[in-house]
Amino acid sequence: MQKAPAPSRSSNIPSTRTSKRSATVTVTKLFLVSIAVFISLSLAVTYFFTSASYATGHEDNIAAFKSFAGPFQEYKKLRQEWRPRLFSNYLAGLLMPRGNDRKLFEYSVGLWNAGFFLICCAAYIIFDHRNAVFLIFGTFASLYYAFSPLSESHIYPWDMPALLFYVLMYCAYKRSITALLAVLWVGTGFKETVALGSILFLFWPGMTVPRKLAYFFAGFVGCISVKLAIDLITGNPSPLFTMTFYNFGLLNDVAETSRGLSYNIRALSGVYLNHPIFVNAGTFVIFLLLLPRDPDDWMWKTIGVLFLGGILLFGVVNEARVFFEMIPIALWAIVKKFPAQSVP
């Protein structure tokens, strides 16, 4: 009786190669993630100390971060444009020291900014590990430009939360309708610009037009409801509107919409070293110049143009921190235009 032939070793070669390749991919991914985590921690330390050193550079910084130091009736006396960012101010108030310890206050502000930066980095690593290192470095460079002189050393509690919610907005798109609605509604309580993300539902793939419109209105009406509720609670004299009409000293041209636009146009047409075109380390202008190639590109471009229009009409274009929300959108647009090639 003849024995059955032994299986050829060559038959195991494909599976062996596949397992080795899988192991290599896993190791490479872990190595890349480890690099991204270490870089995040290093840059967070840098951002912590830089933010701390700027924390007391302007009296508005102290007033905003300590806006919940007293009773709520005192909060209702704050400047009109500060009050709607209720969630940001409240959470920051929990972190701020109650006394007058200057160093402790500075470190608390540094911890606030560095903490939100780390959460943004974590989102990059979790949702886009291939490009995480670029996104982390790009975000840090963009944030650092806000320390230029024309920002007047302003650091407000709502700057970093607004950035985080735009990162989460990008991550939720095409992944979870429920998550995106939550990001929009909760984020509006931190800063009203998050409401612009309602536009994402109009471009959501695989949805019928009526369903897109339904979710768009659900998102936008929810954001408006949050904003209106906060305005009523905080005694905003012009509900649904954030900016006030008063004298900003040298910036008093923003006291009215037409004059605000006039001031911002003059600021853009001037020639000086830290020009607004360099805002967000130049990534915002690059984003605006990239040609749209698909519906998603048009969607983000629409949000960017509307955002810029709002700043030109109601904001101060050379205060770099007001552009933080555009950081992740611009960076991901650059990544999409010039994708990484050899990262698993």
From TrEMBL:
Source organism, top-level taxon: Bacteria
TM annotation in the entry: 30-49, 104-125, 132-149, 155-173, 180-207, 213-233, 271-292, 298-317
Keywords annotated in UniProt: Membrane, Transmembrane, Transmembrane helix
Name of protein: DUF2029 domain-containing protein
